[in-house]
């Protein structure tokens, strides 16, 4: 799942304003949740970055809220 409308900061690596959030795992205890969830750059593909005030737990709740609509 990719979440694209959170207005993240620009890419820390290349400065492009093309960041998107990727939620790889919904399971907080999993390695993928800790290492792969976060912001990725659409231009240079750097990531995952933990940016802004959105925690990965918030991301999971947001994703679930979308699924339940
Ligand atoms: Zn970049």
TrEMBL record:
What's the source species for this entry?
Aliivibrio fischeri (Vibrio fischeri)
Name this polypeptide is given:
Phage protein
Domain of life of the native organism: Bacteria
């Amino acid at each position: 799942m990719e979440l694209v409308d959170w207005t993240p900061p620009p890419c820390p690596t290349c400065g492009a304003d093309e960041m998107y959030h990727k939620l790889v795992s919904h399971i907080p205890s999993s390695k993928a949740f800790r290492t792969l969830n976060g912001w990725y750059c659409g231009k240079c593909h750097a990531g995952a970055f933990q940016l802004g005030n959105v925690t990965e737990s918030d991301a999971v709740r947001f994703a679930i809220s979308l699924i339940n609509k």
